[in-house]
Design a protein that fits this description.
Blueprint (H helix, E strand, L loop, with lengths): L1 H39 L20 H6 L31 H6 L3 E5 L1 H4 L11 E4 L5 H6 L2 E3 L2 E3 L1 H8 L3 E5 L10 H18 L4 E5 L6 H6 L5 H18 L2 E3 L25 H13 L2
Parallel strand pairs: 1-2, 1-5, 5-6, 6-7
Antiparallel strand pairs: 3-4
Length: 286
């Protein structure tokens, strides 16, 4: 009996040790598989929705003569902007001339997906269009954008174009989450950066554009009254700096101070006739 007890006392720790080793091996294997899955990540078709950026290039002349595009998704906070597009609208209606195109030949346009839409108008053939989906005053200062296949800061892209005039339209992507004071602070700093890199250029600030009634019902933090408040602050900033403020919003509104439903498919991105209004406003306010 004593020998059997000694044998049991010896076997018990061996079995316990073996069980612990098996458990430890299973835990290590699980950790390795988890790390591998995190590194590999799930694969998605298309580009990420986080700060989607696309190089802005000239569209084919047939596309330009047919229409202007709109992004199907609304501009969101910087981390959730997307750039999927809906079908294009009917043909251009404004009779832009060669002299009009010549006027924009030395210009650079900086903005978000709304500015991207200008690339489909032949009057902008010789302008430098730096429209990036999801761009805001904050990301224009802090995040490189993919332009011409390269990651560059927008101020450097503007500098490389050597423009005589820089049109800036930013705000649609941040008014729903950024305080008005911060918006003006970042805008002010962006202007300083642009002036430093392109001292020869005249900088003109374009207003934030209105949205439709149905759009502001869906997104009350982007209401037209909220947009008007930001535009008022933007105008004051321009006055204090001696910059030209282009109130493009004024030619986009209906009698109720909203973007007409006929102007947009998604409530914010413009159809061709309203891009014509935008371009015509610039030509009338040289």
């Amino acid at each position: 009996m004593k020998k059997r007890r000694r044998w049991r006392r010896w076997l018990r720790p061996v079995l316990v040790s073996a069980a612990m080793l098996i458990l430890l091996g299973a835990i290590v294997t699980g950790i390795v598989l988890l790390i591998h899955s995190l590194i590999a990540g799930p694969k998605h078709a298309g580009s990420s929705s986080s700060q989607t950026s696309s190089a802005v290039s000239k569209a084919a002349s047939s596309a330009k003569s047919s229409s202007a595009p709109r992004a199907s998704s609304s501009p969101n906070k910087v981390s959730s902007a997307s750039s999927s597009r809906t079908s294009r609208p009917a043909t251009q209606t404004a009779p832009f001339t060669q002299n009009d195109a010549k006027y924009f030949s030395g210009a650079a346009f900086l903005g978000d997906s709304l500015t991207e839409g200008l690339e489909y108008f032949s009057v902008m053939d010789d302008a430098t269009l730096l429209g990036e989906t999801g761009l805001s005053t904050y990301t224009a200062l802090t995040h490189p954008q993919t332009i011409g296949g390269k990651k560059v800061m927008v101020a450097d892209a503007v500098k490389a174009a050597k423009p005589s005039v820089i049109y800036v339209m930013l705000g649609s992507n941040e008014i729903n989450w950024m305080a008005q004071g911060d918006y003006i602070k970042y805008y002010d700093k962006l202007i300083d950066t642009l002036q430093k890199g392109s001292p020869q250029a005249q900088i003109e600030i374009e207003s934030i554009l209105p949205v439709t009634a149905s759009y502001e019902k869906r997104y009350p933090d982007r209401s037209n009254s909220h947009i008007d408040q930001f535009n008022g602050a933007l105008r004051l900033m321009c006055n204090s700096r001696g910059l030209k403020f282009l109130d493009i919003a004024s030619v986009m509104k209906d009698e109720d101070g909203k973007l007409p439903s006929s102007a947009s498919d998604d409530g914010i991105h413009l159809r061709a006739p309203y891009y014509n209004r935008w371009i015509s406003y610039l030509l009338a306010n040289k």
